[in-house]
Please model this.
Amino acid sequence: MRVLDDSATEAFRELERNPVWHRLIDEARVVRTTRADVDRILVGQTTAHGRKVTDVLVHERVPYISYPYEWPVELLHRAALHHLDLHLDLLEAGFTLIDGSAYNVQFIGSRPVFIDIPSIRPYREGEYWHGYHQFSMQLLAPLLCDAVIGVSPHAWLRGSYDGIPLDAIWRCLPLRARCSWKIMLHIGLHQKLNQSKPPIVSPTSKQLPRATLKWMLHNLRSLIEGLKPTRSHTSVWNSYTTGTSYSHGDASEKRTFIGEWMKAHRPKLLADIGCNDGEYSAHALHTGAEYVVGFDSDPGAMRKAVQRADTGGFQLLPLVVDFANPSPTQGWAQNERAGFLERAEFDGMIALALLHHLVIARNIPLPHVLKTLVGIAPKGIIEFVPKHDPQVRRLLSHRNDMFPDFSESSFRDTIGTLAHIDQEHVLRDGGRILVAYRRK
Model:
C-alpha cells in the first residue's frame, strides 16, 4: 500500500487515463495496482514528509520480497533491462521515471516486475533523468563488476547502501574496458561530471531533449545487453545433480518422500534452504508446492536454478544467500530492508543435505542450526547425512573430527525438543535420514 500527496495523486490519475498503463498491467510488467476505497480517517492525514494524504494505492502482493544483493547476476541483468525497457515505453507515452533504483524491481519467480508506481510521472520536455546516477551505481556498476572484472558483486552491494560508487568501479576496470566508448560515457565521463563542484550535470538540469534521453537509454541498454554473466563463479555444487553421492535407489526414495509430503501439505510459500541447482525446488512445485524461494550461497549453482525456473516456467525464485551469514536487517534505523529471518514467513521448508556443511564446514553447533531451521517454517523436511557418507568424509578429510555430537541420535533428540517428528525415512543404500517435522 502507498499513500499519495496532491502531486503524486495527480500524476497517477493522469497515468491511469493513458492506454500505456493498462498495457503494462496486462503484460505484468508493473505490479497490478488499484486505488483504495479510502477510509475518511486516512484522507487528510499526512505522509512521512508532512504532506497531506489525498489518495492510497493498493498493490497486488509479491510472494516474497528480495533485494539486489541477493539476486543471481542473471536476475540483476534482467532487472536492469526491464527498468530501461519500461522507461523507454513510458517516454513514448509522455511519461518518465524519476528514479533509477534497483529496489524498484521485484521478482515473481524469475520474472521481473516494477513496483514503484509513484516514481512514474508525466514527462516535461528537456527534463534530465534524475535516476541516472542511481541506476548506474545499483545496476550498471554491479553488472560490470561481474562481467568485466569477474568478481561477484553481491558482497559489495550488500555492504554499500547506495550501490557501487562509479569512481570505485572505474578504478577497478581493466584498460580494455575503459577503452570502450560506452563504458567511458556511462562510467568514466559520468563519474567525472558528478565529481565536479558543483556538478556539471545535476538532478535539476533541464537541458536534455527527449530524443537525446531516448538515445542515452537505448545506448545504456545496448551496453548492458552485451554484458554476459561471467562463468567464473563456480564450485563443486553447481554440478550437484550429477555429482551427488546418492545411489539411483536413494534418489528415487528421496523424491518419493518429498513428493508425498508436498501432496499432503501443499505449502503456498516454501523455502528451499541450500537449494543448489533447484532440482528439488522444481520437484516440490511439480508435486504440490505453490511457490518456492530457493536459497544458496553458490552463484554457479544459482545460475542453473535460474535456467531451470525459466525452462520449466516454474514459480521458483532463486536467491544467492549464505545461510551461515544471511542478509541482515539494514537501512535507516535498521528498519528499511528486512533481514532474511525477518522475512521468513514461510509455511513450509526443506533443508536437504545441508546440516553437515553448516556444522562441519562452518563450525556451527548442530542444536543452533536445527533451532534456526525449524524457526523458518512451522513444518517441513530436514535431511541428516551421517559421517560415513562420502560427502561428510570429504569435509573431514582435511581436519580433525571435532564433532562428536554430529550423530543420528543427537539429530533425532534435538529435533524432538523443537518439533514433533511426523514421519522419518532412512534411505536404504546410503543411510541418510529424512525427517518431516511439525513445530511445537
